[in-house]
Amino acid sequence: MKNKMELINKSVAASLLIGLGNYALLKLGMPIGPIIFALGLLGVCYMGLNLFTGKCGFLFQDKIKIVDLLIILVVNLISGYLIGLVFSLTDSDIMTSAISKVKSWDISLSFFLKSVLCGIIMYIAVFMYKKNTSLGIIYGIPLFIFCGFQHCIANIITMGVARAFDYSIFICIIGNFIGSLFMWYISRDIDIKKKKTSK
Fold it and tell me: 8-67: per-residue pLDDT in tens?
C-alpha cells in the first residue's frame, strides 16, 4: 500500500460512506434502509477506499501488510465513532434508534456467529466486485442487515450515534475477520480446482 497518510485518509473516507449508509438505515428502518445502505459499500469499492471488513479477507490474496490492516481498522473505528457522534447532533430519531440497537447487542455465541456470517457476505460482495459485478454488494448488504448479521464498522458508528460503547465490538471484529478469511480459504480452493481441471 502507499504512504500512511493516504492510507488514513482513505480509511476515514470509507467510514464516512458507511456512516451515511448507516444513517439511512437508522432513519428509514426496514425495508428501505438496508437497500440504501448498500450505496456505502458501492462507494467504498468504486472509489478504492479502505474499509476493514472489505480488506481483511484479502489479507493474503492482495498481500496486505498486517500493520496497514491494523491502521485501517483503528482509523475506521475512531473516525466511525466520531462520525456517529456528529450524526447524533442532527436527528433525535436516529439517536433513539441507535440506543435501542446498542442495547440489543451482547457478548454471546449467537452474536459472534452473526459477525462471522457478516464477514462471509462481505468477502463475497467484494470478491464479486473484483470480478466486475456489483451484484454481490447490491444483494449482499441488504441480506446481512435483514438477517441481523453484525458489521463491526457499522456497529461502532451506531455506538457513536447512541453516544455509548459496548464491548461486543471486539467480538464483532474477530467474527468479521474469521468469516472473511474462512470464505477466502474456500474460494482459494475452488480457484485451484478450476485451474487443475482446465489443464
Answer: 999 999 999 999 999 999 999 898 999 999 999 999 999 999 999 999 999 998 999 999
Structural domain spans, the chain: 4-197
**Separation of alpha carbons 31 and 34, rounded Å:** 6
Q: How many CA atoms lie within 13 A of 147 on its CB side?
A: 18
Handedness of CA 107, 108, 109, 114 (dihedral sign): negative
Cell numbers that stand for 107 in this block? 457478548
- Say what the alpha-carbon torsion angle 45, 51, 57, 63 is, to the nearest 10 degrees: 90
CATH 1.10.10.60 assigned to domain 4-197? The reply is no
Torsion of CA 59, 149, 19, 7, to 10 degrees: -10
**3-state SS class at 2:** coil
Q: Cell 481441471 belongs to which residue?
A: 197
Using the 8-state DSSP alphabet, how is residue 48 labeled?
T
Asked if 105 and 166 touch (Cβ cutoff 8 Å), the reply is yes
- Gap between the terminal Cα atoms of the chain: 34
Tell me how far apart the alpha carbons of residues 26 and 99 are, in angstroms, rounded to a whole number: 10
Instruction: Residue 67: name the closest of 3, 9, 151 by CA.
Output: 3
**Sign of the CA dihedral with 163 first, then 168, 171, and 175 last:** negative
